[in-house]
Amino acid sequence: MHSALVRVQNVFGFFTTVAFCTAFVVALSVIVIPQAPSADIQLRNVQVVKGRPNYHSTKKEEYAHIRFDLDADLTSLFNWNTKQLFVWLTATYPPRTPTEAPSQAVIWDAIINSESQKNPSTPFTVYANYMNPPKKPTKAKRPSKSKQEVEMAPGLIRLQSSKPKYQITDISGRLAETSNVTLEIGWNVQPWVGALTWTSAEGGNWGRWTGLKGGRSKAFDMPSLKVKGVNQEAVKGSGKPEKAAEASPVII
Question: pTM for this one?
Fold first, then answer.
């Protein structure tokens, strides 16, 4: 006859074994779920200014202000094991010397939560909703188009003529007339259980996972300090674009 303590230990050991095996199966199950992300990035405007890019800067230096269009479809990265998606946009340009690695600077980022993260269903939330049910609106209001799209497909990103969240600076303090600059998108998938997954380059297919399609802008040159800005006509290999109207960013 086992004592109560031994029985509790056996039950706890069995529970942890089942929980570990379940988490292991869930982490491996995402491998069979197909992924096919795609993105299109277009330069709108770039300016190089000399001043203090941040309020805590102690000296004046050259920094760049880049406006861009981003049209990305990352819905395939969301599955039943996805907690949230961290997306960023970097500006990459060649180093000053051949021995150095290319320089990269993040100009925009965002965190996109999954449906299970935005609306968690736990015993605590169920009890809270039961004790304090949400109040019904007095008037039947039709949800806005943006709200409908957010609820329909998380992972779609639509940015038009968007301002950067961060300014670009260089350790040398000079950015004017820098050539061969490109904008690239990257992401990090944070699952509920399992390993983190990062950006898959174009052509980097692995099983049912397809590499990123697009995700890089055409190369462009930074203007000089005397030029206030350069529009998309300065992009290498691009024609004269249509003028885009100002629009607020919409992340779906």
Answer: 0.73
